Amino acid sequence: MxxxxxxxTWAITGAAGRIxxxxxxxxxxxxxxxxxxxxREVSDLRSGETAVLADLADPxxxxxxxxxxxxxxxxxxxxxxxxxxxxxEVNIVGTWHLLEAARQAGVTRVVYASTxxxxxxxxxxxxxxxxxxxRPDGLYAVSKVAGEALCRLYADKFGFTATCLxxxxxxxxxxxxxxxxxWLSPEDAVAAVLAGMAQDGPSFNVVLAYSDNEHSxxxxxxxxxxxxxxxxxxxxxxxxxxxTQGRQAGALGxxxxxxxxxxxxx
Length: 266
Ligand SMILES: NC(=O)c1ccc[n+]([C@@H]2O[C@H](COP(=O)([O-])OP(=O)(O)OC[C@H]3O[C@@H](n4cnc5c(N)ncnc54)[C@H](O)[C@@H]3O)[C@@H](O)[C@H]2O)c1
Description:
Layout: E1 9-13, H1 18-27, E2 33-38, E3 49-53, H2 59-66, E4 71-74, H3 84-105, E5 109-115, H4 139-158, E6 161-167, E7 169-170, H5 179-182, E8 183-184, H6 186-197, E9 203-209, H7 221-225, H8 255-259
Parallel strand pairs: 1-2, 1-4, 2-3, 4-5, 5-6, 6-9, 7-8
Helix pairs in contact: 1-6, 2-3, 3-4
The site of nicotinamide-adenine-dinucleotide (NAD) has 23 residues, from helix 1, helix 3, strand 5 and strand 7.
């Protein structure tokens, strides 16, 4: 079955955030209805949009919000390194709440916002594919690996169509040397989500959601096979010196980046 977004209603969790706001604009006119779920208020609703204030901690509210929806794009998360208790609660338990609420509401198509930081500890000299093991650069990335595993479980056990986007550095424009390799443009972010939502039948997919950067450290071929064809190249927007040594994560891979954000044991 081919999906027709122009007759479907999709839900977006984390709709008030940076990527959610970009998606709302990018999907406007392409998808018939959007249910915008966030614990923060979403403002300036367009035609076809409905806002639902709900927290990932409240699975019943999520289940109600997903009633009658054709698919869900799960962005809501703590989107950076933090204390692991908080990451586990929001990014792991919260993702399970979302998936289980979706299952109970009969919604089995999910696009999950994972991160390129799940592979951040690879050296920049390695071209990473989706077949390779994850090497998370911190506890945020660990929580996203767990989210991917939950998606895989819901695909294998409950027949979900689950697509995990390992999102690079999402920015309006590349800003620094690292972005020459890991940038994801707003237009390519929308394209990655559309490719994920176009998948059909029980399946688990991982897409490296980066723009087509000429200094890329990842292999985009797997995503292209799933219909994701990025158009942008950071080097067309920024002159800089590509990074040729060290970890893909850069300073995010340093021990202190993780340790400084943990509450002390008591
Ligand atoms: N921005 C990037 O470069 C990037 C890179 C890789 C992955 N990602 C992932 O993409 C997703 C979106 O990123 P973003 O940059 O838009 O983040 P963001 O922080 O701008 O937005 C996240 C949204 O989630 C909501 N949220 C957080 N906790 C919630 C909860 N418990 N219940 C309900 N809503 C909650 C927030 O209110 C916020 O509106 C995240 O999952 C992030 O981890 C982002």
